Amino acid sequence: MTMPRLLSGQSVVVDGPTAVALPTLTPLLVVRALGFSNQRPLRVRVQIATTVDFAAGSLAVDSSFSTSDTTIAVQITRALPSEATVYWRASVQGALGATAESPITGPRTVPTWLTLIAPKPNSGGIFDIRRPLFVWQSARITPAAGPWTYSIEITNGGRPEQAAAGLRDTTFRAATNLQAETPYFWNVRATLPNGDFVRLASSASFSIVDPLLPTTTILYQNFPNPFPSATTFNTCFWFDLGQPGGTVSLDVLDLRGNVVRTIVPGLDGVTQFPAGRYGRGAPGAGSNCDSRFVWDGTASDGRTVAPGVYVARFRSGSGTPTFRRMLFKGR
Description:
Blueprint: E1 11-15, E2 28-34, E3 42-49, E4 59-67, E5 71-75, E6 85-93, E7 99-101, E8 105-109, E9 114-118, E10 125-127, E11 133-138, E12 149-156, E13 159-167, E14 171-173, E15 185-191, E16 197-201, E17 206-208, E18 218-219, E19 235-236, E20 239-241, E21 246-253, E22 259-264, E23 272-273, E24 276-278, E25 294-295, E26 308-316, E27 322-328
Parallel strand pairs: 10-17
Antiparallel strand pairs: 1-2, 2-5, 3-4, 3-6, 6-7, 6-8, 9-11, 11-14, 12-13, 12-15, 15-16, 18-20, 19-25, 20-24, 21-22, 21-23, 21-26, 26-27
């Protein structure tokens, strides 16, 4: 901590938020100049930096102004860097040349500008409605710097499916029905009037479950593929069984046709499944994968297999098997 530099009894104190985590992106600082009673005007300088040495490249705020007041409220009007660690200080110079500098205050942590809330950005989820509600939040900011405006985009396979711009609220209900059994991602851009912005995208997909029973039997492409991904070690298998259901087997094969791992039957030994949809997580569970129908890249003996291309083989009853290629990236 740097102590004030005192000349002829002058000193400077800066009052600001005391908690380590700042409550806002634009804090209010109050500078008090002590011992300058006969020196007007006062030249005040306020600095906020991301390093304690206040190096030129680290300055987020560097403001100077003249005043006749000895207690000056300084409202920061530009959002501090998201999630940065910051320090602040002030100096005052009187009309007769006397100068004093405040102690350095910090570290303080700036809130994140934008947070995605629902669907959960890192684990996705399952919804049983076709128009789910999207929810996000932004850190507090002074009206002099705001308000926030938002745009949202819902994507499927990297292509925009729905989008909206100019939003002031932090919720958005899908305007039209989303497709069932489709992995969706979403992203939000938050923008300030001065043009500063931040954009966040979900790293995990969410999907819609159609409550009606399926009319056909199908094995969907596993996901993520390739795997592992940044958010999971496993790849997930979804399949539908049309009426009346049937006997199911699901195996992972190498390219020579050898069985590497059996997914169905699993530890419970179940092979008979009624008509329905399988592999999805339960609505509200925070995951769009049922842990019974995943592969983690290990063989039946528990050893991790070599990176490469593998094949999922799915069969229902005496029907023709379905195959899906997948790429295991290794660990």
